[in-house]
């Protein structure tokens, strides 16, 4: 399982931007989130969508820290909007960015001795802040208050709790793969983060 230790400094996380492997993985996660989120998701309500668009952003935050996670979130929202022909909404973009930031910070500081709880908490915290609060507010204003915000929250809370279960399981499966964890360790060690 994932056994590396993170250097909990801002400089250590920013240094990963200079690692070409991390940049390539971040670009792939950005494209995956943008394409999967906007093209291969299911709209259950105008303000609620089932999909795994947030998973690559949360992965970037957990694996590479809050700065890379934020960059992936920003790029994913803009790329997805470009694919669908939408104008980006600054509040929902902030929600995507916060997914990467919160998952990165939570992963750095919470439950460091238990990777399972660490990943679940990071995923849940990111969705509470980014998806359930910030994106809901952004969508409320995007729709001009057409839907009551309490109804929007009521729909989105169970949706994202279910997605946390699925996303956390997928991340844990990846992290338990020895070959994947070794490659991730080597990538981050070259960037001197962990």
Concise description?
The protein has helices at 10-14, 20-39, 55-64, 66-84, 90-109, 115-142, 149-176, 178-190, and strands at residues 42-45, 48-50. With 194 residues, the chain is mostly helical.
Describe the structure.
With about 190 residues, this protein is mainly α. The chain has one domain: Orthogonal Bundle (Arp2/3 complex 21 kDa subunit ARPC3). Helices cover about 75% and strands about 5% of the residues. It is built from eight helices and two strands. Strands 1-2 form a two-stranded antiparallel ribbon. Helix 2 crosses helix 4 and helix 4 runs antiparallel to helix 5.
Q: What attributes does this structure have?
A:
8 helices, mainly alpha, 194 residues, 2 strands, Arp2/3 complex 21 kDa subunit ARPC3, two-stranded antiparallel ribbon, disordered N terminus
């Amino acid at each position: 399982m994932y056994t590396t230790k993170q250097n909990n400094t801002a400089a250590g996380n920013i240094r990963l931007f200079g690692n070409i492997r991390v940049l390539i993985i971040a670009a792939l996660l950005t494209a995956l989130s943008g394409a999967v989120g906007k093209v291969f998701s299911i709209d259950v309500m105008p303000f609620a969508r089932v999909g795994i668009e947030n998973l690559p952003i949360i992965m970037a935050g957990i694996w590479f820290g809050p700065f890379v996670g934020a960059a992936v979130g920003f790029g994913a929202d803009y790329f997805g909007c470009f694919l669908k022909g939408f104008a980006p909404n600054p509040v929902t973009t902030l929600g995507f960015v916060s997914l990467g930031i919160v998952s990165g910070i939570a992963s750095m500081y919470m439950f460091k001795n238990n990777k399972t709880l660490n990943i679940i908490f990071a995923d849940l915290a990111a969705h509470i802040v980014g998806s359930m609060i910030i994106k809901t507010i952004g969508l409320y204003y995007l729709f001009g208050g057409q839907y009551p915000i309490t109804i929007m929250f009521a729909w989105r809370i169970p949706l994202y709790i279910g997605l946390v279960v699925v996303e956390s399981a997928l991340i844990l499966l990846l992290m338990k793969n020895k070959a994947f964890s070794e490659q991730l360790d080597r990538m981050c060690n070259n960037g001197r983060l962990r």
